[in-house]
Design a protein that fits this description.
The complex is a heterodimer of chains A (157) and B (749). Chain A has 157 residues and is an alpha+beta fold. Chain A has two domains: 75 residues, Roll (Ubiquitin-like (UB roll)), CATH 3.10.20.30; 68 residues, Orthogonal Bundle (DNA polymerase, domain 1), CATH 1.10.150. Helix content of chain A is 32%, strand content 15%. Chain A has five helices and five strands, in the order ββαβββαααα. Chain A has a five-stranded mixed beta sheet with strand order 2-1-5-3-4, covered by helices on one side. In chain A, helix 2 packs antiparallel against helix 5. Chain B has 749 residues and is of the alpha+beta class. Chain B has three domains: 184 residues, Aldehyde oxidase/xanthine dehydrogenase, a/b hammerhead (Aldehyde Oxidoreductase, domain 3), CATH 3.90.1170; 342 residues, Aldehyde oxidase/xanthine dehydrogenase, molybdopterin binding domain (Aldehyde Oxidoreductase, domain 4, 2-Layer Sandwich); 102 residues, Aldehyde Oxidoreductase, domain 4, CATH 3.30.365.10. Chain B has a seven-stranded mixed beta sheet, sandwiched between helices. Chain B has a five-stranded mixed beta sheet with strand order 7-15-14-13-8. In chain B, strands 16-21-22-25 form a four-stranded mixed beta sheet, with helices on both faces. In chain B, strand 18, helix 13 and strand 19 form a beta-alpha-beta unit. The chains are: A alpha+beta (157), B alpha+beta (749). Chains A and B meet through helix 2, helix 3, helix 4 and helix 5 of A and helix 1 and helix 15 of B.
Chain lengths: 157, 749
């Protein structure tokens, strides 16, 4: 099937198998390997991308379902490592990552959350990332990263 | 001098932008795709295999089987496991699958889809053999799983110290228990993946996530019958390991694929990416175990004698089981001076998934038994669990059960006192309500998201404490060493420093810490230090990133290499190159009869206090706070250490409360993250308070000790003690899933 979609503001047109997963399309067809696959079942959240601005599990969607839609992957958050998105910067400063395999999924889950929450409570942060698994950090430094990110995004620091 | 500094981790910018390449992300031109064919047979003899239909699938390039493996046996404790189970190989035992995760073939194709289709068309005829699915059954030796070994007891250690009869005589109380410890799956977020090819110097090259590049190289070289120089291992970014990437997963089969394709004139890289299901089937687990133990104490709380029998399920192949059993054997008596001890520990071969390395390496199982015994004695004697520990902990000059003292720098008493103080224990006894009365003022800052029921009548609060020690390094006579190369470049001034080192950064941040140590050792700013890491072509053997050893070992190696490089620099060498191999003080294996030995060269010490609430109606346990006091000797990077403590506590929280791998008749029944549950943020302790202590290790680099496993050890027994405090019931088996808790509480009523 022919599909046309926007990813990180760039338009892609491809002929894909109807059963190709969106995660495999991103990783293997387009080389956007920042989207990671950890469980293939929608449990871990590592493959989260933005679909018309909303976080979705790319391992639970087909590429054809993205036809005509706008996607953002982790590669779309920053122009370069020298110009990080405030959420990326906060994860770095607050030690919100270790092995980093889950990190793109956390970041993509949090981009709309932080935009909508200038001053999130800890309970709200925990709710926001309750669908993402991390095996390294114990989550506490991720919560701190989100608090710092909200300040950065909304001009508090 | 090295200053403690929470330097931001150096690999974060690549990880937050998605630019960092993990092994499964590497996509060279001309890539071929591989699939491992698993036996799915816990115990069966191969009669015939037919790959013709699979070979006919369009796009299939090669199917490799046992006869393609030059030396068809490998393993960290000896070559006991076939690379590929099947017929016609050099290994006479390779026709039998002893584990459902044994590999029988590698399918290589133009696409993953073609490889998967071909895999499903391979026809194998098996003769079923009796499946030995329990240690009890295995100990009968009616069916010998490893005929070359001659018994299902893979390894036995014993300890004989003092006079047991006298020890029991002196005791005012004798307390006997049997503990069951479960499997644990590592569940690193990145399933195994790798790529194999022939590099520009003709070397068989494998890029993969592992924990010891030079050991991987040795295993690949052995299996392929190549000199080690003809094999190269490179670690790209590694998505977690925790011991689960210490043994071989894809290393050998990817090397085999690259070599055999090359021989057929096909010079194309091969990539294999395991699914989560393949990952859970395909690698070892924390050992399940049973501990039968008896402790005697005086009414003042002084331990007089301990006996224990440890049964540890090592599964179908040895992996690192002999070493894990060694730690278990030492730690089953806890960080205490025990005057009389009689310990028998067995690693037992079954047709279950192999047990192997996992954060703590036998320590958590031993600690669970020892600490729960200690907490039960405290309760029975009416002594605070803090005081009873202080009466018995190892101190300078104390003798271990192996009748030698631990090395100087023993901080167990200080660590327990500090933990108790930070947690507000002082010297009072248990303060929970002992399950007698409901609490009316339950408050949780996150209770809206934890779905606590509205009925405070069913909530009970409790708290518990436990402490542990853990050796740094494998030791027990293991040939421990670590090499580093430092190059100093410049003319008059030092312009840059290069550290070449093999240490794997599995997420813990070791590359950041090594860079800090290299800068301190040479005496330059960190910005001048460049790293060349984790490639056997450019670095020397670092030993494994495991056993909480790398900061300790690499730090000492870096100091030696820096000193050599600075000496060369002073002699006007340009660049000035220093190489150093650090060898820690020698250790000894257990004496076969008495266990007497000098087991280890360094230890880390840790204590944890837990506050929690049990819902006695639903069996749910909500952990509110964990205080972890961990003596790290010297905090090179305090923020990285906090990350290790918080991560270890949450992983141990999963072990204690949630993680329930179901294994029946040699088969894992829940090989998915949707069925094997690991902690999400709503499951974890609300607060983990890290108390980083710095009692220097006299032989540690700048005083540093290992620390990454230690915070795992005391948590499960501290939780069990707190649940007892809350409910009046002791749980001798984990995980404390709601159904298990409810069932046991109803038994009491």
């Amino acid at each position: 099937m022919n599909i046309s979609l926007s990813i990180n503001t760039k338009t892609y047109e491809r002929d894909v198998e109807p059963r190709l997963l969106l995660s495999d399309f991103l990783r293997h067809e387009l080389g956007l390997t920042g989207t990671h696959v950890g469980c293939e079942q929608g449990v871990c959240g590592a493959c989260t991308v933005l679909f018309d601005g909303e976080p979705v599990r790319s391992c639970l969607m087909f590429a054809v379902q993205a036809n005509g839609h706008e996607l953002t992957t982790v590669e779309g958050l920053a122009e370069s490592q020298a110009d990080l998105h405030p959420i990326q910067q906060a994860f770095w400063e607050a030690h919100g990552l270790q092995c980093g395999f889950c990190t793109p999924g956390f970041l993509m889950t949090l981009v709309p959350f932080v935009a909508a929450h200038p001053n999130p409570t800890e309970a709200e942060i925990r709710e926001a990332i309750s669908g993402n698994l991390c095996r390294c950090t114990g989550y506490q430094h991720i919560v701190q990263a989100v608090q710092i990110a909200a300040q950065k995004v909304h001009g508090g620091a | 001098m090295l200053k403690s500094q929470s330097v931001y981790r150096i690999d974060a910018p690549g990880k937050v932008t998605g630019e960092t390449m993990y092994a499964g992300d590497i996509t060279p031109d001309n890539l071929l795709h591989g699939k491992v064919v698993f036996s799915n047979q816990p115990h069966a003899r191969m009669i015939a295999m037919d790959t013709s239909a699979a070979e006919a699938v369009p796009g299939v390039v090669a199917i490799l089987t046992a006869k393609d493996v030059p030396m068809n046996g490998y393993g960290l404790s000896g070559p006991d496991q076939p690379v590929l189970v099947g017929l016609g190989s050099s290994n006479p035992h390779a026709d039998i699958s002893r584990w459902e995760g044994d590999h029988v073939a590698i399918v290589i194709a133009e696409t993953e889809t073609a490889a998967a289709q071909a895999r499903s068309l391979i026809q194998i005829e098996w003769e079923q053999l009796p499946i030995i699915g329990s240690m009890e059954e295995a100990l009968k030796d009616a069916v010998i799983i490893q005929p070359w070994h001659g018994s299902n007891v893979l390894k036995k250690y014993q300890i004989r110290k003092g006079d047991m009869a006298a020890g029991w005589d002196e005791a005012d109380i004798i307390l006997e228990s049997t503990y069951h410890l479960p499997y644990q799956e590592h569940a690193f977020l990145q399933p195994e993946a790798g790529i194999g090819y022939i590099d520009d110097k003709g070397r068989v090259t494998v890029e993969v996530g592992g924990q010891w590049a030079h050991e991987d190289r040795e295993q690949v070289a052995h299996s392929l019958a190549l000199p080690e120089e003809q094999v190269r291992i490179i670690y790209p970014a590694i998505g977690g390991a925790f011991g689960g990437k210490e043994d071989m997963s894809l290393q050998i089969v990817l090397g085999l694929a690259a070599m055999r394709l090359h021989e057929r004139g096909i010079n194309r890289p091969v990539r294999i990416i395991w699914t989560r299901e393949e990952s859970i089937f395909g690698h070892h687990k924390r050992h399940q175990a049973t501990v039968y133990t008896k402790w005697g104490a005086t009414k003042e709380g002084k331990i007089t004698a301990v006996s224990a029998t440890v049964h540890m399920d090592s599964g179908a192949y040895a992996y690192t089981s002999p070493k894990v059993l060694g730690n278990f054997h030492l730690m089953v008596t806890g960080p205490y001076e025990i005057p009389n001890a009689h310990i028998d520990s067995y690693a037992i071969t079954t047709n279950n998934v192999p047990g192997g390395a996992f954060r703590g390496f036998g320590g958590p199982q031993g600690a669970f038994a020892a600490e729960t015994q200690m907490n039960k004695l405290a309760e029975a004697l009416g002594i605070s669990p803090v005081d009873i520990r202080l009466k018995n902990v190892l101190r300078e000059g104390s003798l271990l059960t192996v009748q030698t003292p631990p090395p100087p720098g023993i901080s167990m008493a200080e660590v327990v006192e500090r933990c108790a103080q930070e947690a507000g224990w002082n010297s009072e006894q248990y303060s929970g309500n002992g399950g007698q009365s409901p609490i009316s003022n339950f408050r949780s800052p996150f209770n809206s998201i934890q779905s606590l029921p509205g009925n405070p009548q069913t909530l009970r609060k409790g708290r518990g404490i436990a402490c542990s020690f853990k050796n740094v390094g494998f030791s027990f006579g293991a040939p421990e060493n670590c090499e580093a190369i430092i190059e100093i470049h410049g003319t008059a001034e030092i312009e840059r420093v290069v550290l070449r080192h093999a240490a794997a950064d599995v997420g813990q941040g070791t590359h950041t810490a090594l860079k800090q140590m290299a800068a301190a050792a040479v005496g330059v700013d960190m910005n001048l230090v460049e790293l060349d890491m984790s490639d056997t072509a450019t670095s020397r053997n670092s030993g494994s990133v495991s056993a909480s050893r790398m900061t300790f070992m690499a730090g000492n190696a870096i100091r030696g290499a820096a000193e050599a490089a600075l000496t060369a620099w002073a002699s006007e060498d340009r660049p000035a190159i220093g190489h150093y191999k650090y060898i820690p003080p020698g250790t000894e294996p257990y004496d076969a009869e008495t266990g007497v030995c000098m087991p280890n060269f360094s230890y880390g010490y840790v204590a944890e206090a837990v506050e929690l609430t049990v819902d006695i109606e639903t069996g749910h346990i909500y952990v509110e706070k964990v205080v972890c006091a961990n003596d790290v000797g010297k905090a090179i990077n305090p923020m990285l250490i906090e990350g290790q403590i918080e991560g270890a506590v949450v992983q141990a929280h999963g072990y204690a409360l949630m993680e329930n791998l179901v294994v029946k008749d040699g088969r894992i029944l829940n090989p998915y993250l949707s069925q094997y549950l690991i902690p999400g943020i709503k499951d974890v302790p609300e607060i983990v308070q890290s108390v980083i202590m710095e009692v220097p290790d006299p032989i540690g680099p700048w005083g540093a000790r290992g620390m990454a496993e230690m915070p795992f050890l005391p948590l499960a027994p501290a939780i069990v003690a707190a649940v007892h405090d809350a409910t009046g019931v002791w749980f001798d088996e984990i995980p404390l899933t709601p159904s298990r808790v409810v069932a046991k509480l109803r038994e009491k009523d």
